[in-house]
Amino acid sequence: MNNYETVFILTPVLSDAQVEEAVKKFEDLLTSNNCEIVSKENWGLKKLAYPIQLKKNGFYTLIEFKGEGTVVADLETAYKRDERVIRYLTTKLDKHAVEYAVTRRAKLKSAKA
Questions:
Q1: Tally of domains within the chain
Q2: 37 in Cβ contact with 64 (< 8 Å)
């Protein structure tokens, strides 16, 4: 099993319930394909670096997961088919990126406490 992280941006016209429903849809897709979700972070409404589809803001979400390489194609197909997603990026993490992600999550957890 490989480590991956995916970041996707949802259109800013969605309500909080609609954002949660969209995120849940992609989480369910991952878990139904035998992936283990390591971490999920909702970064909230952020300003985009440049306008996308005449939108200047978007809801960012990061999901780290472990799974087989074939699930990435299914996940990205689901992103393309969902009109709420305006951008996405999925990357495979090497051992150094996994270590960095673990320390970053630990720092976030200590900052919240």
A1: 1
A2: yes
Tokens for 94, please give them.
């090497």
How far is the C-alpha of 93 from the C-alpha of 102, rounded, in Å? Answer: 12
Q: What is the DSSP string of 16-57?
A: HHHHHHHHHHHHHHHHHTTPEEEEEEEEEEEEEEEEETTEEE
pLDDT for 55-78, tens place per residue? 999 999 999 999 998 999 999 999
The C-alpha atoms of residue 51 and residue 58 are separated, in whole angstroms, by: 10
**27 φ/ψ sector (left φ>0, alpha ψ -120 to 50, else beta):** alpha
As a whole number of angstroms, the distance between CA 15 and CA 62 comes to 18
Q: What is the pLDDT of residues 46-61, one digit of tens each?
A: 999 999 999 999 999 9
**What CATH number corresponds to the domain at position 66?**
3.30.70.60
